[in-house]
């Protein structure tokens, strides 16, 4: 299954036994299908028996107990049903808040079942919110939605959080497009770069020098000349770790703050195609230091 241009938008959310897709399991899948005007055309909501006890810390967050899961179907039943639901009307865009988390858990669970991975990318509303609301006190989904007057139900239950993602997307009108997208995780390939940043991965392999336009950081908005080293993730954010040539040491640059990328070299190599939705003429947004 692949994304269908012009297809509906699908907001997804997973609840799990913990934070680690290598060892934890999905316990609830939620999805809401809607169009650009917010008109819904379908929902998917199922509990999933994880085959292991629920951790107390996770239960305190989403309220899903072992007793609630006792009669639920296992992932071997629910995940194929979820994929069939998606295939009924293939999405043009899949959204999640902290998309890397959802893409990783889906990929791990499908790999355990020996199922092929759908060729879908999950676009991250967390990265988008960080770009559009750099001074927000928190970018947690429930906090953002409370500030925007979106209250679809209890936080950290799958369908309610899907409705929050939908409401957040509609409230910001998809401004600027999603900056960070993740393919469904493939355990056989390991951790890869976010979708759309493959040209930077190639620059890393060549040891190329880049100029980025960066919004924020310790030096404030402006250009940086860097030698990229690797991608990293922390606290739901994706980073490019690179040697900052001005400072002479490695620094981490948040991807949602990168506005454009240009490869430098003696032959005047051209720009890297900004396939992440970045625009060379995008206005820089001042961000408080340390944000």
UniProtKB/TrEMBL annotation:
Residues 264-291 are annotated as: Disordered. One of its GO terms (biological process) is DNA replication. It comes from the Bacteria. InterPro entries: DnaQ (IPR006054), Ribonucl_H (IPR013520), RNaseH-like_sf (IPR012337), RNaseH_sf (IPR036397), WYL_dom (IPR026881). CDD domains: DEDDh. Keywords: Exonuclease, Hydrolase, Nuclease. Residues 8-178 form the Exonuclease domain. Gene3D superfamilies: Ribonuclease H-like superfamily/Ribonuclease H. GO terms for cellular component: cytosol. Coiled coil: none annotated. GO terms for molecular function: 3'-5' exonuclease activity; DNA binding; DNA-directed DNA polymerase activity. SMART domains: EXOIII. DNA polymerase III is a complex, multichain enzyme responsible for most of the replicative synthesis in bacteria. The epsilon subunit contain the editing function and is a proofreading 3'-5' exonuclease. DNA polymerase III contains a core (composed of alpha, epsilon and theta chains) that associates with a tau subunit. This core dimerizes to form the POLIII' complex. PolIII' associates with the gamma complex (composed of gamma, delta, delta', psi and chi chains) and with the beta chain to form the complete DNA polymerase III complex. This is WYL domain-containing protein. The lineage of its organism: Bacteria, Pseudomonadati, Planctomycetota, Planctomycetia, Isosphaerales.
């Amino acid at each position: 299954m692949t994304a269908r241009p012009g297809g509906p938008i699908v907001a997804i959310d997973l609840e799990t036994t913990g934070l680690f897709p290598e060892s934890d399991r999905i316990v609830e899948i939620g999805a809401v299908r809607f169009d650009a005007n917010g008109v819904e055309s379908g929902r998917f909501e199922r509990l999933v028996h994880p085959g292991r006890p629920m951790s107390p810390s996770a239960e305190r967050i989403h309220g899903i107990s072992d007793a609630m899961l006792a009669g639920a179907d296992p992932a071997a039943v629910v995940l194929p049903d979820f994929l069939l639901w998606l295939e009924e009307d293939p999405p043009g865009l899949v959204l999640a808040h902290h998309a890397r988390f959802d893409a990783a858990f889906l990929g791990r669970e499908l790999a355990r079942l020996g199922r092929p991975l759908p060729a879908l990318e999950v676009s991250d509303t967390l990265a988008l919110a960080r770009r559009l609301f750099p001074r927000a006190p928190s970018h947690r989904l429930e906090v953002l939605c409370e500030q925007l007057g979106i209250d679809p139900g209890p936080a950290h239950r799958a369908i309610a959080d899907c409705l929050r993602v939908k409401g957040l997307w509609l409230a910001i009108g998809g401004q600027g497009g999603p900056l960070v997208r993740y393919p469904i995780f493939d355990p056989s390939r390991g951790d890869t770069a976010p979708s759309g940043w493959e040209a930077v991965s190639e620059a890393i392999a060549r040891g190329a020098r880049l100029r980025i336009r960066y919004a924020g950081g310790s030096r404030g908005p402006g250009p940086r000349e860097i030698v990229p080293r690797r991608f990293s993730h922390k606290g739901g954010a994706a980073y490019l770790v690179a040697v900052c040539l001005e400072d002479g040491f490695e620094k981490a640059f948040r991807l949602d703050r990168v506005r454009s990328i240009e490869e430098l070299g003696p032959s005047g190599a051209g720009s890297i195609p900004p396939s992440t939705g970045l625009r060379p003429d995008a206005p820089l947004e001042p961000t408080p230091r340390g944000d």
